[in-house]
Design goal:
Layout (H helix, E strand, L loop, with lengths): L1 E6 L7 H15 L3 E6 L13 H4 L11
Parallel strand pairs: 1-2
Length: about 70
């Protein structure tokens, strides 16, 4: 099992990230793998409705946020 904490706050090292990291630390102490994902600073854009995802099984070629 793996627990993922996703922080969507635009402030790096803010309260949201600190609380998420604290929760993940408690989970990790139980022997469960954890990962913290920060969305701030990533270039995440909305869907362009190009239907590339229907034409091939791979993710969209513009995967800057992966």
């Amino acid at each position: 099992m793996k627990v993922i904490g996703i922080v969507g706050s635009p402030r790096k090292k803010g309260n949201t990230e600190l609380l998420t990291a604290h929760a993940l630390k408690a989970v990790a102490e139980e022997g469960i793998t954890t990962e913290l994902i920060r969305l701030s600073g990533l270039d995440i854009r909305p869907c362009q409705a190009c239907f590339t995802c229907f034409k091939r099984p791979q993710p969209h070629p513009n995967k800057s946020f992966y």
